[in-house]
Automatic annotation (TrEMBL):
Cofactor binding notes: Manganese or magnesium. Binds 1 divalent metal ion per monomer in the absence of substrate. May bind a second metal ion after substrate binding.
CDD domains: RNase_HII_bacteria_HII_like
HAMAP family hit by this protein: RNase_HII_B (MF_00052_B)
Top-rank taxon: Bacteria
Protein name per UniProt: Ribonuclease HII
């Protein structure tokens, strides 16, 4: 197995310890200058079948491959959802609080689809539990650095969330074509930053971030 191939080893260890469901969780758009931050969640149980061929952390895949894998990942897991926090919310609350807010919205969407949230442990990519501070009732959360690379449920959440947010930024490109969002997806590429300098910020820019980048 290549280093970039995720497995279910961590999820299976959680199932063996008595956990009924594992919710893989990953964020996308954290470092963007425009658009929402999004949190993807994908829930699996011990009966989950073979991992879709080619599933990877979304950062290791081409856009075309992500688009092909997203529906396969969504079909593979029991339920999936993406929650968002807007650029205005990022300006008002800060990025860490908005990760939690987007995660809370994803959990609510999972619950609405029939997922048993109360019987789940969240497997969260990274070293910080930014989810529980946003919840009224805490959930078991296991953080893991590079979980999006190593854990199949988190890789699935990563791909689903990335495709969801990318499609949103491509749609916004049609409304605000100067900024090149169809290509840069709201991240601070040189062309994007030059367009901000020439045309100013839009309602979907993180204005506080632009100010922090100003000389």
């Amino acid at each position: 197995m290549a280093v970039s191939d995720p497995s279910l080893d961590v999820e299976n260890a959680l199932f063996a310890s008595g956990v009924r469901y594992v919710i893989g969780c990953d964020e996308v758009g954290r470092g963007a200058m425009a658009g929402p931050v999004a949190v993807g969640m994908a829930i699996v149980d011990a009966r989950i079948g073979g991992i879709p061929a080619g599933l990877r952390d979304s950062k290791l895949l081409s856009e075309k491959r992500r688009e092909a894998l997203a529906p396969l990942a969504a079909d593979w897991v029991l339920h999936s959802a993406v929650g968002e926090a807007s650029a205005a919310e990022v300006d008002a609350l800060g990025i860490t609080a908005c990760l939690g807010l987007a995660g809370k919205r994803a959990l609510l969407a999972l619950h609405a689809s029939g997922a048993d949230i109360a019987a789940s442990t969240v497997l969260l990519d990274g070293s910080q539990d930014w989810l529980n501070p946003a919840l009224g009732s805490p959930l078991p959360v296991q953080t893991r650095v590079k979980a999006d690379r190593d854990c199949a449920s988190v890789a699935a959440a990563s791909v689903i969330a990335k495709v969801h947010r990318d499609r949103m930024m491509i749609q916004l490109h049609d409304e605000y074509p100067h900024y090149g969002w169809a290509g840069n997806k709201g991240y601070g590429s040189p062309a994007h930053m030059a367009a901000i300098a020439e045309h100013g910020a839009t309602p979907v820019h993180r204005v506080s971030w632009i100010k922090s980048e100003a000389p």
